[in-house]
Amino acid sequence: MADASRPNRLRLVRAGIDTYQQPVVFMHRDCAVCRSEGFTALTRVRIRNGGGELVATLNVGTGDWPPTDVAALSEAAWNALRPEHDGYATITHAEPPPSAAALRAKVFGQRLDEADFLQLMRDTVANRLSDIELAAFVTACAGTRLDHAETIALTRAMVAVGERLDWGGGAVLDKHCVGGLPGNRTTPIVVAIVAAAGHRIPKTSSRAITSPAGTADTMEVMAPVALGLDAMRRVVEREGGCVVWGGTVRLSPADDVLIRVERPLDFDSDGQLVASVLSKKAAAGATHVLVDVPVGPTAKVRSAEAAEALRARLAVTAAALGIALEVRMTDGRQPVGHGIGPALEARDVLAVLRNEPGAPADLRERALHLAGALLEIAPGAAPGQGRAQAERLLAGGAALRKFLRICEAQGGFREPAQAPHVAPLPCAHHGVVRAVDNRRLARIAKLAGAPASATAGVDFRLRVGDPVERGQPLLHVHAHTPGELAYALEYAQAHADIVLIGETA
């Protein structure tokens, strides 16, 4: 039974249900609180337990679960509230969020100022906005619905509601890729080169949400990445650089919430992309930033015109934040490296750092290009010498030694493992590779189990213009189980144009 002295109180229990980042509470439709408060499914409710408070979305049970005398919290809700064992909570209707008026104004096409965005981001990180409201905000800002001034205001607001690192003066370098290109795992190599050159480069990276691997997933194959702020600072002070997961350091936490909503919607929005990238760079204390923009028909940025528009917005916003910015457009027509998936990409990273004869030449070249460009925007750099400096540090082994020291500082280096099940996808006829579909190639890797299975993914070594023979492997699928292997191969065989083969000239 509910606490008789307080009719709107229920005992809290842990539901053991993963609702990702969204706090959810489960209550029976016949419980006293639902009946007296008039709660229905998706009602936003305020839960108070001792000194803790949480706003959550209600899901209503109609059968035997949950019992009528409890409120069952999802994992996200439980971890956010941290209630006392067998504690009771007062559950009431949540008040409308303070940013409700600003959200409505944006939905109806009005411009918002910095105060509006700040309140929206405060409500976002405090979980006062439901996923439906967040989806409305993301939609209202999609396309070209954020002008440059709004993009700057949103970026500043995202920085303001999170932690911000202060490195005590001096240049702090950073690098980011807007994504959309399988296997483009240049970041660990760039960090190693730049740190070996004596610069600070505290790199926070994301895990994959819709891709086969994020930089943090790939780095985690080789070293721990879930470091807190203090541990991250110790690594950077010791080695000059790091590659850690941004989810543990709360730099621009509003961005993490918005990404959760944006990705399923698959909206292209330069304003939100720029705010996402530069809010995290500013929060990490970066003073000089290089942004890699791969451009290609199946990349995230698909045309030169779209790339130039993105460059302009990045430049304006970076200038407003006091960040020195360099944007490099790169070839996004096909994957980079051999591997697609955490362990396979880690193998490529190590092959380049170790200067192995079979290391993927395109990954090495792209990493040197980006590292050289980043070195050249550092204060005091000699113009035109960045690439040569990067090549010396890589070829001479200094970059490898620095990378291994960074791994040790983060908790210890380990070699990437190999998937237990590997099978080829044979070519149906001879010809020449005319095009590669980046998105569907990445999907094969995901169906094989990446990134949840770190060793799963795709080994793809062909490039546009390469000749192929009938029966020759187009790619190899790596999987943890036979079922995942068969599932990925079935998809690949059903979509033969993932690797488009044309007749020879």
Automatic annotation (TrEMBL):
Gene Ontology molecular function, alphabetical: 1,4-alpha-oligoglucan phosphorylase activity; thymidine phosphorylase activity
Keyword terms: Glycosyltransferase, Transferase
Signal peptide interval: none
Keyword Ribonucleoprotein attached: no
GO CC list: cytosol
Domain of life: Bacteria
Gene3D superfamilies, per database record: 1.20.970.50, Nucleoside phosphorylase/phosphoribosyltransferase catalytic domain, Pyrimidine nucleoside phosphorylase-like, C-terminal domain
InterPro entries (UniProt xref): Glycosyl_Trfase_fam3 (IPR000312), Glycosyl_Trfase_fam3_N_dom (IPR017459), Glycosyl_Trfase_fam3_N_dom_sf (IPR036320), Nuc_phospho_transferase (IPR035902), PYNP-like_C_sf (IPR036566), PYNP_C (IPR013102), Pyrmidine_PPase_CS (IPR017872), Thym_Pase_Put (IPR028579)
Catalytic activity: thymidine + phosphate = 2-deoxy-alpha-D-ribose 1-phosphate + thymine
Enzyme class at the top of the EC tree: transferase
PROSITE patterns: THYMID_PHOSPHORYLASE
Alphabetical list of PANTHER family matching this protein: THYMIDINE PHOSPHORYLASE
Domain Pyrimidine nucleoside phosphorylase C-terminal, residue spans: 432-499
Family: Belongs to the thymidine/pyrimidine-nucleoside phosphorylase family. Type 2 subfamily.
Name under which the protein is recorded: Putative thymidine phosphorylase
EC number(s) per entry: 2.4.2.4
Entries under NCBIfam families matching the protein: ARCH_P_rylase, PRK04350.1
Pfam families membership: Glycos_trans_3N, Glycos_transf_3, PYNP_C
Alphabetical GO biological process terms: pyrimidine nucleobase metabolic process; pyrimidine nucleoside metabolic process
Originating species: Vulcaniibacterium thermophilum
